[in-house]
User: Fold this.
Amino acid sequence: GEKLLFLIFIFIYFFGKIEITEDLEPPKIVNCPGNIHKTSKEKWTKIFFPGVTVTDNVGVHLFTTSRPNGSEFTWGENNVTYTASDSAGNTAKCHFQIVIVGMYDRFVGF
Assistant:
C-alpha cells in the first residue's frame, strides 16, 4: 500500500502528471457485406460470409457475430449482425441479410 503510493509519487515527480483520457471512438468494421442473395432447391443452404476487418484506436476487445460463418440458412430473409467493442465499452455494428429464394422444379403438363 504505502510503497505503491510512494512509487507513484516518485513517478509523477520525475515524469510529470499522468493524463487519463476517455476513449469515445468506437471500433470500425470495414467491408461490411451487403445483402447476400441465393437461390436454392434445398430448404437449408450453407452460406460463407465475405471477410471483414475490425480496427480500433485502442484495440478491439470483443468481436461477435449473430450467426457463425458457414451457418445454414433457410428460405426467406435472415438477419446477420456483427458487433465489435473496445475496452472502453464503445461498440460498432454491421447488419446484412441472407436472402434465400426457393427454386422448385416445374412440371409441364401434357
Q: What stands out?
A: The chain has one helix and eight strands. The two ends are 93 Å apart (CA to CA). The CA atoms of residues 41 and 103 lie 5 Å apart.
